Amino acid sequence: MNLHLPELSPAFSRLLEALRDREVAVIGHARPDGDCIGSQVALARALESKGIRAVCVNPDPVPRRLRFLTGEMRFLKADDILPVADRHAAVFVDCADHGRAGERLRQAFPRPVGNIDHHLSSVGFAEHNLVDGTAAATCEILAGAMLDTGIPIDAQSAQALYTGILTDTGQFRFSATSRRSFVLAGELVARGADPAEAGFELYERESLGKLRLLQTFLSSLTFSCGNRVCIGVLHDGVFASTGTTAEDTEGLVDYARCVEGVEVGVLIEERSDGSVKASLRAKDPVHRLDRVAGQFNGGGHACAAGLTIRMPLATFQARLIEALSIQFEGLSAGGKGS
Ligand code: 5GP
Ligand code: MN
User: Fold this and answer.
1) Which of the residues 23, 83, 282, 320 could staple to 287 if both were Cys, CB 3.0 to 4.6 A apart?
2) Torsion angles phi and psi, residue 81, rounded to 5
3) Which DSSP letter does residue 63 get?
4) Which ligand is nearest to the CA of 95?
5) Dist CA 146 CA 16 (whole Å)
6) Of the candidates 136, 133, 115, 132, which has an alpha carbon nearest to the alpha carbon of residue 124?
7) In 3-state terms, what secondary structure has residue 318?
8) Hey, whose CA ends up nearest to atom 10 of ligand 1?
9) Cα(239)–Cα(70) distance, rounded to whole angstroms?
10) Handedness of CA 137, 142, 145, 151 (dihedral sign)
11) The dihedral of CA 294, 298, 300, 304: what is its sign?
């Protein structure tokens, strides 16, 4: 039989072996997305199917739009797990670095047993690091590894894994989308994943507030670097005035990127504590946004990266434009620019 993940599947088996007879905390990142929650649901269920007790833990709650994946499963907050952290073995999923799950979970689990991830900037911070930067989603790694190692995938796990692949590929559009993404999605549909339900839950239930937030974001768009960069900002207080929460920023940055001629789209969110959060999205991986974000203590993928930094919005915006101009110049000098 041809394996979906010839290199990582044996490592997945070794990870499961290392977790035998342990209680496991399956840990996801701050502001969890579909790939994060999908990975947690599927991995926790895989462990349970092997008789290993597992609980999911996140620094932030499961967003409403992803609750269709979790069903009866309990997701703990950092506060709930801290008192019993020492009796749990930790597996981090979809976390490019140890700190993506928040400082408190990083400290509570200083030496994780596992790290399953697909970020280019991923560093091996665990005993068992299952990292594949070519995978479109952590759920793609997990789906492949579970199929390769014969772990049963029930309908709930199939839907969770399918949703992670669907969301991290931008509905099968982004450059990391491969034949393997489709093959695995097909295998998941064969095991009960329901594309129509996932599509409805994710994309057909927006609140009016979210549309107002989008309206605010669209009115803020400005262009720089010869119109190759499009930046939109959300000022502090916008969530209260539109009746939204930080969860509702999901997907906004794609509008900045989708403009004809724009190569990099940016969303900058101003926080009341004097910091900013930025989301960077490129059309082409040549822009290596993981490196651009890395200059501001962030990271991520070549086409999708993020960061949080303590800096006034205007200062940050100017520095980011400077960093992007240098990145564009580097590309032209290397003969790869447009
Ligand atoms: P988003 O813009 O959706 O928050 O994040 C885009 C990508 O960048 C995600 O894959 C996420 O993991 C990564 N990312 C976002 N914020 C940070 C950060 O502060 N540090 C690192 N290392 N990666 C981040
Ligand atoms: Mn992911």
Assistant:
1) 282
2) -95, -25
3) P
4) 1
5) 11
6) 115
7) helix
8) 300
9) 26
10) negative
11) negative
Q: Please give the helix or strand (H or E) that residue 184 lies within, else none.
A: helix 179-190
Q: Phi, psi at residue 106, to the nearest 5°?
A: -65, -45
* CA-168 nearest atom, ligand 1: 10
Nearest ligand 1 atom, CA 253: 2
- Residue 337 clears pLDDT 50, i.e. is over it: no
**CA distance linking residue 283 with residue 261, whole number of Å:** 10
Q: Give the pLDDT confidence of 236-270 residue by residue, as tens digits.
A: 999 999 999 999 999 999 999 999 999 999 999 99
Q: How far apart are CA 246 and CA 240, in angstroms?
A: 10
Q: How high is the pLDDT of residue 182?
A: 98
Strand partners, 314: none
* Digit-coded pLDDT (tens) for 122-170: 889 999 999 999 999 999 999 999 999 999 999 999 999 999 999 999 9
Instruction: Please name the residue whose Cα sits nearest to atom 19 of ligand 1.
Output: 307
- 8 Å CB contact between 65 and 198: no
Q: How far is the CA of 290 from the centre of ligand 1 (A)?
A: 9
Q: How far is the CA of 49 from the centre of ligand 2 (A)?
A: 24
Q: Are 324 and 264 in contact (CB under 8 A)?
A: yes
Widest distance between CA atoms in the chain: 58
Q: How confident is the model at residue 336 (pLDDT cuts 50, 70, 90)?
A: very low
Task: For residue 138, report the distance from its CA to the centre of ligand 2, in Å.
Answer: 5
- Name the residue with the closest Cα to ligand 1, atom 7: 305
Q: Could you give the CA distance from residue 129 to residue 134 in angstroms, rounded to a whole number? A: 15
Angle at 251 between CA 40 and CA 79, to 5 degrees: 40
Residues with CB under 6 A from ligand 1: 96-97, 100, 119, 121, 279, 298-301, 304-308
Residue closest by Cα to atom 15 of ligand 1: 306
